[in-house]
């Protein structure tokens, strides 16, 4: 900047004005009187003296003063400053009081480094100082000053030692004057100045050049204090121009000032280090430009007035924190100040322009926001208590802020929050808009828009009144991506927000103040597009929605009310995943659980226990819709994952609200699987629960739930479709009451073996019509009008271990999976376990019972089972086109039978005690050839079951039963047919049954080896039962009690048939006797003889007649004749017979040679012939004293004779043989002798267990 006077017209005009005022003084009357006095003689002499003095004074001042002054300046200044001082030249004009100094040089202490250099200094004093009693400087000029300042430490400079010495207090101190210093300065000028500033602590240097300072007038004299001082300061600070000009009255009471400050591109970072105290921020870059006018005035009364107007701005500003993290940046900030009065709380700006502003706000992991740290730590409570603020009695002036136009362009706000995991990162880009701010007298208007870095735009338009604390805003969001909010949701335990775009359009009204804040919205529409949510932990998406839209009718924060016209979800998909560890990924509605063991929560609860409860939110939704939605569930915790999906799902809910006592209209339409449909309509009251619904479903697939039964059932549900149409009513009282009326069908059911994948059970349709089901929390009540089962199939198998496959439907915990349709290998343990159940129990039949009517009676030993608590009634049951395939792998070869064409009907069955037994009519066919017919009455559901059934099977081919006959009888069946006519009656727990069995042409093949075959002579048993026409016709009565814990109908019947065969084998002749009119106790298996004899009695001949008759009707039977003796009785009998023969021989001697002599001894003749025989016997006899045979009584003679008869084993064998031959002869006269066989006799009574005589002939059939 030029330093010539011409270049400073303001300074020149101020000087000319001062001289003009002096000329006016000379023209005054006083000045003229003084001039007249000067013309007198005395005055002239005095004047000459003065003139001589002045000449001498001028000569001394011009030639003697400069050297002396130069010497004193160099020596005294060097002493005071303790630095070398040199002066090039000093000139003095004593008349004009002008001093000129050239080349003033002050060095540093080292004498080499320059400290201060001044090219030229001139001072022009005024003689008026004498009259004014104050120094009057008409001109002070400094040209080309150069100062080198070095900052050596905090608040220490290269001149600090000088300041310290000069600031030391005087000793003794001089009394201070209360009057201010008196001076007058005119035309103060500094030109071409320069300052070199070296900052050693900061390691920087600054240069101020082109320094120009001008002060035209500055005076503290009372007459001059109201004269404006017009200072001027101009320089370049590190190349940045600085201009400071204005006018001021620094010594007037009003301190009236008007200053203009111009700065152009001042580099702020270079000077912030000199701000007193540490700064919480750093400014790496930024340039300040100002053109401000500052007006200040302090009136005699009233508060001072400070007013600022003009323009100011910052360019390329960057602010960072102590860790050099970014805080604030701006490309350009411009402010036009129209009326800023800080002391009056008035801030009026015509315009504020923010261009390229970037705000970086962060919150650390400790929860502290970076901007909050800038204010430092707050004062402690103790420090505040020590120095309490005095209460202010003056009412503060209201804040008056006006920004006529705040223009925001190309700006950005960045927010990062490290308290979340992961850290939240949100950015608003392209922030732009116009804002008109008014805190008093008018509304604040705004029209602001921005873009989100994640996507979407935001626009806010409206106005607020800070004076009235109200606002009305128009909010518009378009496609705002919400993924950035996901960390906050995760921190709160809410679902992860993976994707979603928020759009909103509506009006929002604000009411705010120190003690209130309210938000009202009406109307407002909001929508979420492409929404996807995942659980708080994990990445699997749990919820998706193509569009969620809410039409808000009204919203009031203080009233806590929300009224929604419509809430609609389009394409909503909820996917839930249950992992192997059992955790579920769908936790969208679950809030964070408080940590266990923390006492803070209870304390907080206790603190607020006395506070009034917050008013609950009142939410109403006129219509809630779900369109084209879906719900999917996958359960991986099962051994086989379960996947279920409901799609499409359409829901309409009307009149929903948080008032759970109001009814809600519900319409649900859903699809399950490819064909499944569900439709639910009705009215629901949520609390207490009350629902009145119409439920209609078609072909709902239940097969998807099969994996849950994978570990429970050996059968897989590969197909099952549920259809129902009915009316469902739910009521919550003390207990939940359920009522259903309608129809249901379970169709296309298929259960397959999980091992072989073969069909185990299937049916086309199981229809339940006219259902009336009710449950009141105590007793289920079910009424079914009709049950119809059609086209059904079942696979029944007896495994090699004897276990029925139906027993293996449920997987046993300790066993491996079993096949239900294939043969399971028999294990030793399994066979042992099943043997007691499979082995028949043989009961002895009463001997009095007929052979063809064996009765088995089982008595009750356990308590009678009670009927269930359910109340069940089925009016009609219909069966159609059934098929049961039965295979018995317990026998080898295996047996398989098909029961086909099963059909029929069952009448009403019920659990009621007074229910009339139902009529039963069933039909079918065995292997397609033998018809089966069952009819009668049953009521199996009654408390006491009632059965009265008659079953008929005609012409069942017995060859199919060969596996059983070969295994258990040891013979295959080569021919035969079975016809059964069974009648079962179950009444009051007692079972009686009549089994009429007719077998035609039963024929066995050759014997086969079987370890399970019975040891009983099966062929004999069949021969016993089969008549001459090849028919077996028997009746097997059965009886038992259901009270027996081990009772089973099949077991009872089996035991009856086994007992029949066993009786046929063990008591065949008793059976024959019964079959042909004999008493049940008559035994045809032996013929009795008197001891020692072989004569057949008449009674025995009658028995032989009966036996012969039975043998004729059983042509397959053959008889073995076994002669027997019992030595215990037959030896004495033979002796007796020998004596009798000797007696008869004596009578024969009396008859002589008569051909027809009668050898029968009459009783009256017996003693006579006994005596003769005694005398003729050759054995020693008792004698008298003379040596003659002594005469004895008859009994003693007989006894003595029998004693001396010798009976040998040969005699016994001969007796047994004679008996057998006698019987053979007798039977041969009655039956074919070829069927009779005399076998070796038995010479003992061993093996005879009946009560008959042991002296006999036994028969054995074969």
Please describe what this structure looks like.
The radius of gyration is 68 Å and the shape is rod-shaped. With 1262 residues, it is of the alpha+beta class. The strands form two sheets. The chain has a 44-stranded mixed beta sheet that branches. The chain has a four-stranded mixed beta sheet with strand order 45-48-46-47. The protein has 18 helices and 48 strands. The chain is 19% helix and 45% strand. Residues 1-9, 381-387, 587-609, 826-868 and 1046-1050 have low confidence and may be disordered. α15 packs across α16 (1163-1176). The longest helix is centred in the first third of the chain and has 41 residues, at 41-81.
Structural class: alpha+beta
How big is the Rg? 68 Å
Q: How far apart are the termini?
A: 155 Å
Helix content: 10-25%
Low-confidence stretches: 1-9, 381-387, 587-609, 826-868, 1046-1050
> Which percent range describes the beta-strand content?
35-45%
Q: How many E-type strands?
A: 48
Mean of residue pLDDT values: 77
Total count of helical runs of at least 4 residues: 18
Described by the principal axes of the CA atoms, the overall outline is rod-shaped
Specify the biggest β-sheet. Answer: 44 strands, mixed
């Amino acid at each position: 900047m030029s330093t010539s006077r011409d270049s400073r017209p303001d300074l020149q005009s101020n000087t000319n004005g001062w001289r003009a005022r002096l000329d006016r003084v000379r023209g005054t009357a006083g000045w003229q009187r003084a001039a007249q006095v000067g013309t007198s003689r005395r005055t002239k002499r005095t004047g000459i003296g003065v003139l001589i003095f002045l000449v001498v004074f001028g000569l001394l001042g011009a030639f003697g003063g400069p050297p002396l002054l130069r010497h004193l300046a160099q020596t005294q200044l060097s002493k005071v400053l303790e630095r070398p001082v040199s002066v090039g030249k000093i000139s003095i004009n004593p008349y004009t009081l002008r001093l000129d100094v050239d080349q003033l040089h002050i060095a540093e202490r080292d004498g080499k480094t320059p400290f201060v250099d001044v090219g030229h200094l001139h001072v022009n004093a005024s003689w008026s100082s004498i009259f004014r009693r104050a120094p009057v400087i008409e001109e002070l000029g400094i040209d080309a000053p150069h100062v080198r300042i070095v900052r050596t430490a905090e608040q220490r400079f290269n001149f600090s030692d000088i300041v310290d010495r000069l600031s030391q207090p005087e000793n003794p101190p001089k009394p201070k004057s209360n009057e201010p210093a008196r001076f007058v300065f005119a035309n103060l000028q500094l030109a071409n100045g320069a300052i070199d500033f070296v900052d050693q602590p900061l390691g920087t240097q600054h240069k101020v050049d082109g320094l120009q300072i001008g002060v035209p007038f500055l005076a503290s004299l009372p007459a001059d204090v109201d004269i404006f001082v017009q200072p001027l300061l101009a320089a370049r600070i590190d190349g940045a121009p600085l201009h400071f000009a204005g006018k001021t009255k620094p010594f007037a009471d009003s301190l009236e000032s008007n200053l203009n400050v111009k700065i152009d591109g001042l580099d702020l970072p270079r000077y912030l280090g000199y701000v007193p105290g540490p700064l919480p921020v750093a400014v790496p870059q930024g340039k300040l430009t100002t053109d401000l006018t500052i007006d200040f005035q302090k009136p005699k009364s009233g508060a001072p007035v400070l007013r600022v107007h003009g323009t100011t701005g910052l360019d390329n500003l960057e602010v960072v924190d102590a860790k050099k993290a970014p805080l604030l940046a701006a490309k350009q900030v411009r402010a036009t100040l129209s009326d800023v009065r800080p002391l009056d709380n008035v801030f009026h700006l015509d315009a504020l322009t923010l261009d390229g502003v970037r705000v970086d706000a962060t919150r650390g992991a400790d929860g502290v926001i970076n901007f909050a740290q800038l204010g430092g730590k707050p004062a402690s409570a103790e420090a505040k208590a020590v120095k309490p603020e005095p209460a202010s009695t003056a009412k503060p002036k209201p804040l008056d802020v006006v920004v006529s136009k705040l223009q925001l362009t190309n700006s950005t706000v960045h927010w990062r929050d490290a308290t979340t995991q992961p850290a939240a990162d949100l950015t608003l880009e392209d922030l732009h808009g116009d804002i008109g701010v008014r805190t008093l007298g008018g509304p604040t208007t705004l029209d602001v828009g921005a873009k989100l870095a994640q996507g979407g735009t935001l626009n806010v338009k409206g106005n607020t009144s800070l004076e009235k604390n109200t606002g009305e805003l128009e909010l518009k969001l378009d496609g705002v991506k919400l993924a950035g909010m996901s960390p906050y949701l995760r921190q709160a335990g809410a679902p992860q927000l993976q994707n979603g775009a928020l759009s909103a359009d509506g009006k929002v009204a604000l009411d705010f103040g120190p003690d209130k804040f309210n938000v009202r919205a009406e109307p407002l529409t909001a929508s979420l597009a492409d929404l996807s949510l995942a659980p708080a932990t994990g990445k699997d998406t749990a919820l998706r929605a193509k569009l969620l839209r809410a039409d808000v009718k009204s919203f009031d924060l203080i009233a806590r009310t929300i009224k929604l016209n419509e809430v609609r979800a389009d394409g909503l998909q909820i996917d839930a995943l249950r992992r192997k560890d059992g955790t579920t990924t769908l936790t969208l509605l679950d809030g964070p659980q408080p940590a266990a063991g923390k006492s803070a929560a209870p304390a907080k609860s206790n603190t607020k226990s006395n506070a009034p409860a917050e008013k609950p939110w009142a939410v109403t939704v006129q219509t809630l819709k779900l369109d084209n939605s879906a719900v999917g569930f996958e359960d991986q915790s099962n051994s086989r994952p379960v996947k279920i999906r409901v799609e499409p799902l359409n829901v309409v809910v009307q009149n929903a609200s948080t008032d759970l006592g109001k009814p809600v209209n519900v319409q649900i339409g859903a699809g399950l699987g490819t064909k499944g449909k569900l439709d639910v309509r009705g009215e629901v009251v949520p609390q207490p629960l009350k629902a009145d619904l119409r439920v209609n479903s078609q072909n709902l697939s239940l097969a998807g739930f099969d994996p849950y039964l994978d570990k429970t059932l050996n059968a897989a549900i590969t197909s099952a479709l549920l259809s129902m149409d009915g009316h469902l009513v739910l009521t919550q009282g003390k207990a939940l009451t359920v009522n259903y009326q309608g129809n249901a069908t379970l169709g296309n059911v298929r259960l397959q073996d999980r091992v072989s994948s073969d069909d185990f059970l299937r049916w086309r349709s199981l229809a339940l019509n006219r259902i009336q089901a009710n449950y009141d929390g105590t007793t289920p009540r079910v009424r079914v009008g009709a049950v119809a089962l059609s086209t059904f199939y079942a696979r029944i198998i007896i495994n090699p271990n004897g276990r029925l496959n139906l027993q293996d439907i449920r997987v046993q915990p300790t066993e491996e999976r079993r096949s239900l349709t294939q043969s399971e290998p028999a294990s030793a343990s399994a066979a042992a376990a099943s043997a007691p159940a499979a082995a028949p129990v043989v009961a002895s039949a009463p001997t009095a019972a007929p052979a063809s009517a064996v009765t088995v009676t089982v008595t009750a030993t356990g308590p009678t089972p009670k009927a269930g608590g359910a109340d069940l009634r089925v009016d009609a049951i219909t069966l159609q086109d059934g098929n049961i395939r039965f295979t018995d792998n317990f026998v080898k070869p295996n047996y398989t039978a098909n029961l086909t064409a099963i059909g029929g009907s069952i009448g009403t069955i019920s659990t009621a005690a007074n229910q009339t037994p139902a009529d039963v009519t069933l039909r079918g066919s065995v292997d397609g050839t033998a018809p089966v017919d069952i009819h009668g009455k049953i009521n199996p559901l009654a408390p006491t079951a009632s059965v009265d059934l008659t079953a008929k099977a005609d012409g069942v081919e017995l060859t199919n039963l060969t596996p059983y006959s070969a295994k258990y009888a040891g013979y295959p069946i080569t021919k035969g047919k079975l016809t059964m006519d069974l009648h079962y009656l179950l009444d009051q727990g007692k079972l009686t049954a009549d089994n009429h069995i007719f077998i035609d042409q039963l024929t066995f093949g050759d014997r086969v080896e079987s370890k399970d075959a019975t040891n009983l002579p099966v062929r004999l048993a069949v021969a016993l039962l089969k008549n001459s026409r090849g028919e077996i016709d028997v009746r097997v009565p059965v009886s038992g009690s259901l009270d027996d814990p081990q009772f089973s109908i099949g077991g009872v019947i089996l035991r009856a048939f086994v007992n029949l065969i066993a009786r046929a084998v063990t008591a065949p002749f008793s059976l024959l006797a019964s079959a042909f009119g004999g008493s049940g106790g008559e035994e045809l298996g032996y013929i009795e003889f008197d001891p020692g004899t072989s004569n057949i009695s008449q009674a025995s001949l009658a028995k032989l007649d009966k036996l012969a008759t039975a043998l004729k009707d059983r042509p397959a039977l053959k008889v073995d004749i076994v002669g027997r003796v019992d030595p215990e009785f037959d030896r004495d009998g033979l002796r007796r017979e020998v004596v009798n023969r000797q007696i008869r021989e004596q009578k024969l001697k009396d008859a002589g040679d008569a051909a027809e002599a009668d050898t029968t001894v009459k009783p009256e003749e017996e003693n006579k012939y006994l005596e003769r025989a005694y005398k003729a016997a050759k054995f020693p006899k008792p004698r008298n004293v003379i040596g003659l045979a002594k005469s004895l009584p008859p009994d003693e003679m007989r006894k003595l004779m029998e004693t001396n008869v010798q009976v040998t084993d040969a005699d016994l064998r001969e007796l047994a043989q004679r008996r057998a031959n006698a019987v053979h002869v007798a039977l041969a006269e009655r039956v074919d002798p070829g069927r009779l066989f005399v076998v070796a006799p038995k010479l003992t009574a061993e093996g005879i267990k009946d009560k008959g005589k042991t002296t006999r002939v036994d028969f054995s059939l074969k």
